[in-house]
Design brief:
Elements (H helix, E strand, L loop, with lengths): L16 H6 L14 E6 L4 H6 L4 H7 L3 E7 L15 E4 L2 H9 L2 E6 L4 H9 L2 E9 L5 E3 L5 H8 L1 H6 L4 H8 L15 H13 L6 E6 L13 H20 L13 E6 L5 H10 L4 E3 L6 H10 L2 E5 L2 H8 L3 E5 L14 E4 L37 H11 L7
Parallel strand pairs: 1-2, 1-4, 2-3, 4-5, 7-8, 7-10, 8-9, 10-11, 11-12
Antiparallel strand pairs: 5-6
């Protein structure tokens, strides 16, 4: 009996999808797709960084026809790849997966992360060619290829990191030798998330409203990436004032017949529970707390409800970018130049073009410091003003027909 063990749909220990549906055997199967080139991508964490690294996928599939892509990541990032047809296999970082990558033969192993564990796994993987970073037997990380040297140096020296003008996407495309014009971040909602999103919209009577998502935190690893609670309070007041202004102008020509009431969704994870509860209680007439216990997939559905998302440099920003949302991204200790909004939004940081602050050399000396703690007051995030953020939100509405 002929068995296509090199087929995309071959599972090894169980029937493939087409046999289950139609009873087809390999010898007469019109769905046979031979795997010509096998790729392993190692990107373990953080979750937002894993998501933005999906910008490689379109270029890889275009360059390597009939390729099979396996992605090794940590358990908390596995959900990101649901409904992503460009990744054929997702491996959870586990002892079983470590055995698998040493037994399977890959034509190309990609590890664009210089973290020791990622580099060690790249060394363990059986691959004809390896790019990115590996681990020397003497106990240090090193670049596999010349194109990875720049990213390596940026991870070692703060001044090199700060001087960088390339986006993350551009850097890792260079490392992988991809000249692709298609390098979007990929997060695809399924029908399940669409139903969740629509149900939330109906329950909270959001039809016919302009929805602003406020992602109020940035997790625990980089607390300084979060904007201040005072900033969010003042921004919410300004948004409320916009509604009041239009209500007072109702019926006047300048009010605009197509204006839709502004409504705010509070977004966040477990670390933002208390912050969001506080804001929801204080501004309950305009704010809806979406809860902080949603799955990543549900979180994506909530972000998709929004017309514009205000967020720090965190997972919510990367999901919003991948879903084509308008984004107002707030930066302080991390690099704003590395983030590509794909022309769909605005970056705000102390000294940015939208700032009304006059700072020496148009920036803080310590901006993009990557420090986890800060004793400077006012610091880079405190220097971002609510009016700046509101102006960016309103500017994003200029491309929305009903506003």
């Amino acid at each position: 009996m002929k068995i296509h063990q090199d087929c995309h749909y071959f599972k090894g220990n169980m029937p493939c999808t087409f046999h289950k549906r139609q009873g087809i055997h390999c010898a007469a199967c019109q769905y046979y797709e031979k795997i010509v080139f096998k790729i392993l991508i190692i990107k373990l964490d953080a979750v937002g960084d894993v998501l933005r690294t999906t910008c490689l996928l379109q270029g890889l599939k275009g360059k390597y026809q009939n390729s099979h892509i396996t992605w090794l990541t940590k358990k908390n990032a596995v959900e990101l790849f649901e409904n992503n047809e460009l990744v054929d296999t997702v491996l959870n970082c586990s002892p079983e997966s470590f055995v698998q990558i040493q037994l399977e033969k890959y034509d190309l192993v990609i590890n664009v992360d210089a973290a020791p564990l990622s580099a060690q796994l790249a060394m363990l993987a059986k691959g004809d060619k390896k790019i990115g970073f590996g681990y020397d037997e003497r106990g240090f990380v090193y670049p596999f290829n010349e194109e990875a040297q720049k990213w390596f140096e940026m991870g070692l020296f703060d001044d090199v990191k700060k001087a960088n003008t390339q986006s993350y996407q551009s850097i890792i495309l260079d490392i992988c030798g991809l000249n692709s014009s298609k390098h979007e971040i990929i997060f695809r909602l399924s029908q399940k998330e669409r139903l969740f999103e629509n149900g939330f919209k109906i329950v909270h009577q959001l039809t016919g409203k302009t929805i602003i998502g406020l992602n109020t935190g940035a997790g625990t690893r980089w607390k300084q990436k979060s904007w201040t609670i005072e900033g969010f309070c003042k921004l919410i007041k300004l948004i409320k004032a916009e509604n009041i202004r239009h209500e007072q102008e109702e019926g006047k020509e300048q009010a605009g017949a197509n204006y839709q009431e502004l409504k705010i969704l509070l977004l966040g994870g477990p670390e933002e529970v208390e912050r969001n509860k506080y804001l929801a209680k204080r501004y309950r007439d305009i704010v809806i707390d979406t809860r902080c216990d949603n799955t990543i997939r549900e979180f994506g559905g909530l972000i998709n409800l929004c017309d514009v998302v205000v967020t720090g440099d965190t997972l919510a920003m990367h999901i919003a970018i991948s879903l084509g949302k308008k984004v107002v991204a707030l930066f302080g200790p991390t690099s704003h130049t590395e983030i590509d909004l794909y022309g769909r939004g605005e970056k705000i940081y102390a000294g940015s073009s939208s700032s009304n602050l006059q700072l020496e050399n148009n920036e803080l000396k310590c901006l993009c410091c990557y420090k986890k703690d800060c004793n400077i007051h006012p610091n880079c995030m405190e220097l971002i003003t609510p009016q700046q953020v509101l102006n960016a939100i309103l500017a994003s509405f200029s491309e929305i027909a009903y506003h």
